[in-house]
Design brief:
single chain; mainly alpha; 75% helix; globular; MetI-like fold
């Protein structure tokens, strides 16, 4: 009886210690999550602060003097912003679909043991992660060989395949799609395309959602390809347009005294900068919760090394 009582007491103590530990780590993770959200809320607060209040009181999350001046200044570019937003949404959707399709099919092929050239194509993908041809060869291929200068495809095709995502999906397919299922489908007479669409894709939804999120973030935040290949105002993506507005703000501020006018003083530089950050990050931040459950599962399974 004494031994049983001791075991019960020990189990109760272990359980209470585990509950206390879980409570402590829950609070710690919650505070860590709030610390990650704090900078974004801080940027939103500064974007609604007047330029004079920023000069007197400095940066504050709660505006000392509420103002829409930053957003009003951006509203003057509303036609360009709407056009650039449409371009960004298009290249993000189409580019993500293309990237996910190419990446998942490539990764599935090299994850199968019966694929004769899987080692060659695996090393080929890894080689592109280690070595890059450089900016000039890329520019010549896109503009001269493919003739995509001032084309919407110049913003999509250079990012149509991701070697890192290929390695993630390769491991994911090997861990979640057993060879026995594939062999059973082949015995039943299913083609490779049918196996991939009807069997592999439903099993790989978390991994595909993970690489889709990576690809969407890459296309949404990309401005460098527009800088290299795009000169037409109608094809500027949102990030590149906001960068140009930022450059114009800096140019006006630096040359206020040279022209003898005071035009630059009326422009809310800091509030406009923060407003641009809000406009560029808010849409993608709102879509992230819909991918979160797939993102965690796909990243943890696909990140296992072999």
């Amino acid at each position: 009886m004494k031994k049983k009582n001791k075991k019960r007491i020990a189990s109760v103590e272990v359980r209470s210690f585990g509950e206390k530990t879980d409570f402590f780590f829950s609070i710690f993770i919650g505070l860590l999550a709030l610390s990650c959200l704090f900078p974004f809320f801080f940027v939103i607060g500064v974007s609604f602060t007047s330029e004079s209040a920023l000069a007197i009181h400095g940066y504050r999350m709660i505006p000392a003097e509420f103002s829409w001046d930053g957003y009003k200044y951006l509203y003057e570019f509303k036609d360009q912003l709407i056009s650039s937003l449409g371009v960004t949404v298009f290249i993000t959707i189409v580019g993500t679909l293309i990237n996910t399709t190419f990446t998942s099919t490539y990764a599935y092929a090299i994850s199968r043991q019966n694929f004769k050239y899987r080692q060659f194509f695996t090393k080929f993908a890894l080689l592109t992660m280690l070595f890059s041809a450089g900016m000039i060869p890329n520019y010549l291929v896109v503009t001269k060989m493919l003739g995509l200068r001032n084309s919407i495809w110049a913003l999509i095709l250079p990012m149509a395949l991701s070697p890192f995502n290929i390695m993630v999906m390769r491991t994911f397919f090997k861990k979640t799609v057993p060879d026995a299922i594939i062999e059973s489908a082949r015995i039943d007479g299913a083609s490779e395309i049918r196996i991939f669409i009807q069997i592999v894709i439903p099993l790989a939804v978390p991994g595909i959602a993970t690489i889709s999120l990576f690809a969407a973030l890459g296309f949404w935040n990309d401005w460098f390809n527009a800088l290299l290949y795009i000169t037409s105002d109608n094809l500027f993506p949102l990030q590149y347009l906001l960068m140009k507005i930022q450059s114009n703000l800096d140019y006006i501020a630096q040359n206020v005294g040279l022209s003898g006018v005071n035009a630059g003083m009326s422009i809310p530089r800091e509030a406009t900068r923060m407003a641009m950050v809000v406009i560029s990050t808010l849409p993608i931040a709102l879509t992230y919760p819909f991918f979160q459950k797939y993102f965690v599962t796909g990243l943890t399974i696909g990140g296992v090394k072999e």
